[in-house]
């Protein structure tokens, strides 16, 4: 099973005394005080507006959980640059500026969809480089607003009510087959949880009629996490056509 995990962490030196750390010259440094929780507005519109204003201001980890390996992924985004990296079951995709880099682990079988030279480089642990796709505004992952657009199911929900200190429930209406003469509309349940700073922590979208109790879950965690997403070394990169994304990545 192909897998890869991205871990971006800062170095930490623990002092012997509880509540203290040491600097580079070993002088005691007081641990930062915990940030007090903020008051979440009772009005859902105000609470979501405040949470939306925070999106993109801090680097974070994020994830999509569909209940299976195929379409799920975890990721990290650098709020300063907008660069991100996601890791799925079979792939790693990294966006740096307007460039995409794709990597797989394990060995891919021969494929008529991938040039043999590119396939050889990928199987050796290299990266395939491709520019962003045309029409990416219609995509979720390749949209310029990703990953913050994962909060859209909550932001687009109607009839939202507050169900707990930091939890909300509402309905998102989607139009199925909008280009037919008889489009159908469907209401989907949406729930959202904010963290103690009023930021989006989890959005649950109940969109699968075959499994109505199991939502697709979007998570934002570790706001403020250090992140430095950069292009792979040039020697590890091979040029590829954007269609390679459809052959490797189920997004």
Number of domains: 1
Q: Counting H and I runs of at least 4 residues, what is the number of helices?
A: 4
Strand content: 25-35%
Question: Would you give the CATH topology?
Answer: outer membrane lipoprotein receptor (LolB), chain A
Structural class by SSE content: mainly beta
Give the helix level as a range of percent: 10-25%
The strands making up the biggest β-sheet line up spatially as 9-10-11-12-13-3-4-5-6-7-8-14
- What is the H/E string? EEHEEEEEHEHEEEEEEH
Oligomeric state of the chains present here: single chain
Mean pLDDT: 82
Profile the largest sheet.
12 strands, mixed
Classified by CATH, the class is Mainly Beta
CATH architecture: Clam
| Morphology call | globular
Amino-to-carboxy terminus distance:
19 Å
The count of β-strands is 14
Uncertain spans = 1-27
Notes on the protein architecture:
This protein is mainly beta and about 250 residues long. The chain has one domain (about 40-250): Clam (outer membrane lipoprotein receptor (LolB), chain A), CATH 2.50.20. Helix content is about 10%, strand content about 30%. The protein has helices at about 45-55, 115-125, 150-155, 245-250; strands at about 20, 30, 60-65, 75, 85, 90-95, 100-105, 125-130, 160, 165-175, 185-195, 200-205, 215-220, 235-240. Strand 9 and strand 10 form a beta hairpin. The chain is globular and about 60 Å long.
């Amino acid at each position: 099973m192909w897998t890869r995990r991205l871990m971006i962490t800062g170095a930490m030196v623990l002092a012997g005394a509880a509540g203290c750390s040491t600097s580079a010259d070993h002088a005691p440094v007081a641990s930062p005080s915990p940030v007090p929780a903020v008051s979440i507005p009772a009005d859902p519109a105000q609470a979501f507006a405040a949470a939306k204003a925070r999106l993109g201001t801090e680097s974070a980890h994020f994830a999509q959980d569909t209940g299976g390996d195929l379409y799920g992924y975890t990721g990290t985004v650098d709020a300063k640059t907008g660069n991100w990296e996601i890791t799925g079951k079979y792939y790693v995709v990294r966006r740096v500026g307007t460039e995409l880099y794709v990597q797989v682990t394990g060995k891919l079988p021969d494929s008529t969809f991938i040039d043999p030279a590119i396939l050889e480089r990928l199987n050796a642990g290299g990266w395939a480089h491709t520019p962003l796709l045309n029409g990416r505004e219609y995509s979720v992952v390749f949209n310029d607003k990703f990953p913050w657009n994962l909060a859209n199911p909550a932001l687009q929900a109607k009839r939202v009510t507050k169900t707990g200190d930091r939890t909300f429930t509402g309905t998102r209406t989607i139009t199925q087959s909008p280009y037919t003469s008889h489009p159908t509309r469907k209401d989907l349940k949406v729930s959202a949880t904010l963290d103690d700073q009023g930021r989006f922590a989890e959005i649950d979208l109940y969109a699968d009629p075959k499994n109505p109790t199991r939502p697709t879950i979007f998570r934002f965690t570790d706001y403020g996490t250090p992140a430095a997403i950069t292009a792979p070394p040039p020697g590890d990169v091979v040029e590829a056509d954007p269609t390679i994304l459809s052959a490797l990545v189920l997004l």
